[in-house]
Design goal:
Helices cover about 20% and strands about 45% of the residues.
Length: about 240
């Protein structure tokens, strides 16, 4: 018996705490929208379809699939789609006590350290479309070093399997999203700090071969605190096929 995922998403989160890694990790999970789930670690082969859920107040809202058969299957199991304020379409809420499959990169650090976690995705050609491999990188790397590690690991995976990478066009690699994410209001309040604390988040993409790296970092961790950053591939539990 097993399950085959049909969709996945990538999420990132950060957290700091004055005493324990377990609490900074919990805050990072909350920030990423997966703190209410039981996480089961898996390796590196997500499905081909990537989706973009919404995280609000520690919960993940997963877009309802468009395919009629998938919608019917979800509705037959008693799930009720809902509407989100300011968003189009229907969503399913990933609430408490789910067991979810996750490819997880987690990095812990002490005060003054820089920490980075990254997820890399590499697309390859199949007889009926494309597939995806995922790698994780974590530790005290720089953002740029972590991206380089992910790209190198994905290239080695493709070569070892004789997979032909997907090539889209001749564009140069670039950062498509980069922003400083303020740690949540709850984290700032719990840590007793008045100044704003930020984590750096970016998405780096290349097209020859098609590789995407999602990275999050805190550099440095504030004095008197420990910190955690996570990046994760989450397999969509709503549309898994079970056998």
């Amino acid at each position: 018996m097993g399950s085959k995922p049909t969709r996945f998403w990538v999420t990132t989160g950060c957290g700091i705490d004055a005493e324990h890694y377990i609490n900074s990790y919990d805050k990072a999970l909350y920030d990423a929208g997966i703190s209410e789930q039981n996480i089961l670690g898996v390796s590196s082969v997500p499905p081909a379809t990537k989706i973009e859920p919404i995280v609000r107040d520690g919960l993940t809202y997963v877009p309802m699939p468009e395919e009629a058969s998938s919608r019917a299957s979800i509705l037959s199991k008693g799930f009720k789609p809902l509407r989100l304020s300011g968003e189009k379409g229907e969503y399913l809420v990933l609430d408490s006590s789910w067991t979810i499959d996750v490819v997880l990169a987690r990095s812990n650090g002490d005060q003054f350290q820089g920490i980075t976690s990254s997820i890399g995705l590499g697309a390859y050609k199949t007889h009926d479309g494309h597939g995806v491999y995922a790698v994780e990188d974590h530790g005290n790397n720089t953002v740029e070093g972590s991206i380089d590690n992910c790209v190198e690991m994905l290239q080695k995976m493709l070569r070892m399997r004789n997979r032909e990478p997907v090539n889209e066009d001749d564009q140069e690699p670039k950062v498509t999203v980069e922003k400083n994410i303020p740690l949540t209001e709850a984290q700032s309040r719990l840590s007793g700090r008045k100044e704003k604390l930020y984590a750096r988040k970016l998405i780096w993409q290349s097209w020859k071969p098609k590789i995407e790296v999602h990275t999050i970092s805190i550099d440095p961790i504030p004095e008197g605190y420990v910190g955690t950053v996570i990046a994760a591939v989450v397999f969509d539990p709503f549309t898994e096929i079970h056998s």
